[in-house]
Amino acid sequence: MGTFLTGPERTTTRFGEPAAFREGLVRVATDTFAWMVPNGSWGETNIGLIRCGRQSVLIDTCWSTKYTREMLMFASDLLTQAPVEVVINTHADGDHCWGNQLFVGREIVATHACIKQMHHLSPRSLSALALASRLVRHSPHAPMARFGHYMHSMLHPYEFRDIAITLPTTAFSQRKEMKVGGVDILLLEVGPGHTDGDAVVFIPERRVAYCGDIAFIGSTPVMWSGPVEKLVAALHSVLALDADLFIPGHGPIATRQDLRLLIDYWEYAQDRIALHHQRGVPPAVAAREILRSRDFRERPWSRWDSPERLVTNAFTLYRHWGTTSALMRLGPVNVLWHQAQVALGDCHEDIEHGSELR
Ligand SMILES: [Zn+2]
Predict the structure, then answer these.
(1) Domain that includes residue 299, residue range
(2) Are 223 and 262 spatial neighbours (Cβ–Cβ below 8 Å)?
(3) C-alpha angle with apex 75: 74 to 81, nearest 5 degrees?
(4) Residue 45 C-alpha to ligand 1 middle, in angstroms?
């Protein structure tokens, strides 16, 4: 889907795996583009670019200034004719907005809830976590070593030290219609779900929808905020758009069938995790048991990258079901700790960022 235009020569992903699709700028409709990053794992985020006459709208920025600059460089022919005047952030995760500082002075748009969440994690603390995880990989304490290995393999392609979180200049709630260079752009708030303030962007005349991280294709979706009902409703509202193509936050360009499969994943996750929740099983154990089951292995999502993200999803579901232990209140690092144990612990010893869990 789409026409590949230009991109780096790399044939592997940032994690050194064979690339499932080529990295670079793809034309998905007239004057409408996506910067596609294989294979859609941690920080391998797709970016949208819409030419609107003599200016452009960028949808999301990369996790680091290096990758944001690289994308701008490859798109420079286009951007010389139509510079970026508007940036839209689909949500507050760093891999969608930590390149914002390259657009100071331009209009940056996001939901109120997204902006409120943008300081939830500082680049400095993520740098510290990256450094610590590199060091503790060699810890004699096996769970600590697993955590180090897991986080290091997730973070090592990225550099956060120069990031200055740059907040949007325009906030909206629910719905915003913009006209840029004569092109209608519709922004729909669909969160909370993946994060607190998710938005999708739809260009009616080009029939393209940019979904942000309510859509992961080929890698396991993550629900940091929930509730799951809202995330599923978000997918239904994207399916209701009169679009031919859907650009996910991560992974290859999606069809309606791909989005329906995501809804199936969430229904499956919810059903199976509920059974463990009712038995009083802790969320990480619930996720581990499901991931090891024959039932899971027979599902299409068992072949998606990072299946261990089911641990995060289990924690979020438990929280919405009213179960909050002292451990759960420790937040995302604690959840990732458990996720690392499930990914690298007793399931499979030598996996890289969870892509081979079985
Ligand atoms: Zn993302």
Answers:
(1) 270-344
(2) no
(3) 140
(4) 6
**Ligand 1 midpoint to CA 37 (Å):** 11
**DSSP code at position 309:** G
Same domain for 128 and 38: no
Same-domain pairing of 54 and 142: no
Q: Is the pTM of this model over 0.90?
A: yes
Tokens of 301: 């999502």
Helix (H) or strand (E) holding 55: strand 55-59
Report yes or no on 262 lying in a domain.
no
Cα–ligand 1 centroid distance for 95 (angstroms): 5
Q: Are 268 and 299 in contact (CB under 8 A)?
A: yes
CA 62 / ligand 1 centre spacing (Å): 9
Is residue 222 domain-resident? Answer: yes
The answer to whether residues 192 and 84 belong to one domain is yes
**How does pLDDT run across 286-337, given as a tens digit for each residue?**
999 999 999 999 999 999 999 999 999 999 999 999 887 655 666 788 889 9
94 lies in the same domain as 225: yes
Q: What DSSP letter does each residue of 321-351 carry, written as one string?
A: TT---TTGGG-HHHHHHHHHHHHHSSS-SS-
Residue carrying structure tokens 């859609």: 40
Residue 182 tokens read as 């004569």
